[in-house]
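lol ok so funny story. i was supposed to be doing the assay writeup but got distracted and ended up predicting the structure for this chain instead. priorities right. anyway since i did it might as well share w the group, maybe its usefull for someone
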Amino acid sequence: MNAPRKSRAPLVSVICVNFNGGNILLQCVRSVLTSTVPVQVIVSDNGSTDGSIAALEEDLGNDERLVIIENHENLGFARGNNVALSQAEGEYILFLNPDCRIRPDTIERMIDHSKRLPEAGLLGCLICNPDGSEQAGCRRRVPTPWRAAVRFLGLHHLFPHHAAFRDLNMHELPLPEAPVEVEAISGAFMFVPREALEDVGPLDEGYFLHCEDLDWCMRFRQKGWKVMFIPDVSIVHEKGGCSRRRKIRVEWHKHCGMVRFYRKFFRYQYPLPFMWLVIFAVWFRFGLMACYLTIRERI
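and the output, tada:
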């Protein structure tokens, strides 16, 4: 009697938005193409000028699994991802930063977890720094205006054990032994079943860079989907690989994203004077960051 055939694994479309990623983009795509399941890799390039796309085409251009979209301008993270969605053919979509490296079985294991967790609309994994430590932000709490104020004032250090003053990031907590529901995951690695994506909709293009992942986590949860953290699947993320040369501009977009996020989801949940105070704190923080980065560049 013939042994039953193992069913073919579903196709996964992996979307990477690139902006002057250099050699790390090539490393990322190579790592995805070694996957143990069928993949389609879509690189959405936001007008890179560093030769990263030319290097990718030279090395892997003959691989039929690779699709390169040249946007000829910097569309931002959300729009860059959304442009690629029109060509995504997979039953699952993985939104992956180009400065990440995955293992051959990463995607296969995420598919297995997704099948076991049909209520999960958005799944993230353990994201590690190059030294192996857990990266802040891969499992976190949503930065509500109250939590932002707590963090800005440093109250999470003064009252570390009080529930009202808990820090946003959870990377210093013990790693769970099984998948757990969290409020938010990192935009560096977002694994999404197509059914959930079509229900919630694409990323909000009102964000240029940063906070679009938090926005998406909020929207998935509002639609009744769970956001899950998968601790037994890990990747390496060289954080900021595509944004190291424009630090002040990155901070500007990050703080614009924070203001949009607060206004979109919390403007009617807090007293207006408190919201004004939070928005002021956001721009005050940006001013401090801009001064610090300017002085640092001149030293």
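The first strand starts at residue 12 and ends at 18. DSSP finds ten helices and eleven strands in the chain.
back to the writeup now i swear
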